[in-house]
Write a structure and sequence with these properties.
ATP binding, 28% strand, Rossmann fold, alpha/beta, 24 strands, 17 helices
Amino acid sequence: MQDDYIIDMRHITKRFPGIVANDDVTLRVKKGEVFALLGENGAGKSTLMSVLFGMYQPDAGKIYLRGEEVKFGSSDDAVAAGIGMVHQHFKLVDNFTVAENIVMGVEPKKRLAGFLPCVDIKEANRRVKEISEQYGLAVNPTDMVGDLAVSQRQRVEILKMLYRNAEILIFDEPTAVLTPKEIEFLLDIIRGLRDQGKTIILITHKIEEIKKVADRCAILCRGKLVDVLDVASTSVQHMANFMVGREVKLETTKGEPHFGKEVLKVDHLTVRNADKFEVVQDVSLSIHEGEIFAVAGVAGNGQGELANTIAGMQDAYKGTVTLDGKDITSESVRNRIEDGVAYIPEDRQGMGVFMNLPLDENLALRRYYKEPFSKGGVLDHVKIREFADDLIERYDIRSGQGGRTITRSMSGGNQQKAIVAREIEQHARLLIFVQPTRGMDMGAIEHIHEQIIAERDRGAAVLLISLELDEVMQLADTIGVIYNGKLLKTAPASTMTSQEVGRYMMGVADND
């Protein structure tokens, strides 16, 4: 029946310069279900939900909420109508407490001396604690947001919606920055919200998570609605093929490794953070030509600092980093690039690209000062654009205005594709990949995995740092497991099971 649908979006079209983000999409969501929006990076998922949330106005189409037509002029209108949204990049104030962030704009008030209005922070703390306990979110209202882990910040965003009595909750790529354990906790939260009568819309490209938690799934491809499927009766392979528009390989295949000479040697490396705490402790490792060395570990165990130090973004406290026999421990980032180091960082927006530059200039960042992109100190923009056009086509980087697209306007997954393309095209001796497929759809993951293996097969040394244990097990020739800043175990990947690697990730060492 029509009354079953709490949301009814009819013939929604949304255009941006050079691209139709949503093309005549009709979508209906039932009250009390978990409804997943599945699609490749840039398929139009986030745009469609931003239209529902009042952040964009549709160029065509109508929206019905609980059977009544609505026109949201802003996200405040959507919130007032009972819709909440947790964005992929959180919108919190670090130097405010959890409760202060949650009640901001709708603060409980009291009067001092009977007439002076002020915020009733005691009541705010009480109410936030009550909602947190009701939904099993395990958040302390008096903690400073700046001190919280990523998963806890996400729970604060969920509490913001619940505090405002949201009946419909939209999650935009909620697991993109979470560890496997945190993902399971979040999925439990989503199930609990559904059980308490909330309607959930889950924007994602992770089919295995959809299978665990969603009731129905809509698949978008290049702005168009492909199909709406019953999750329980649809296979992962079928969803993947629909999403990408072709047959997708769910398993990565690679040949036997053929190691050459040593490319990278890290010797007794110790790294301190700003608080003088040793986040990397006496780490030694070696990577050869034709080898993928994967560092496995739970987030926050020093793997990010290890990669940054090898790439020159962070200083070593003790120990040495050697590339092809040359000590590069104290070299600048530019010199390391010239020596043959390519780096795909974990923080793609903070370290990987300049968000306000066009895509073509970001793609040329490693080479802009050399011929053919520069001669006599003058940039050749024609050559830069030709180079960018080639990479955009070969790496399937979705951008509305080609190389002139401002990078900030692209989806996170396509920003990541651009970074991977730029770094691989250096044909470096050493490639450092940190979380290379975070936030990527299955088609893009398949392509990046193929590129990593191709670099290994051409004789490059590859350092892969990933929180995805399946990714480590599929790609690695050698595995090093890091825990609390130390490499607890290093062994050929063929000799280790995922269960064994998982135990080391939790700090459980064997008898040897």
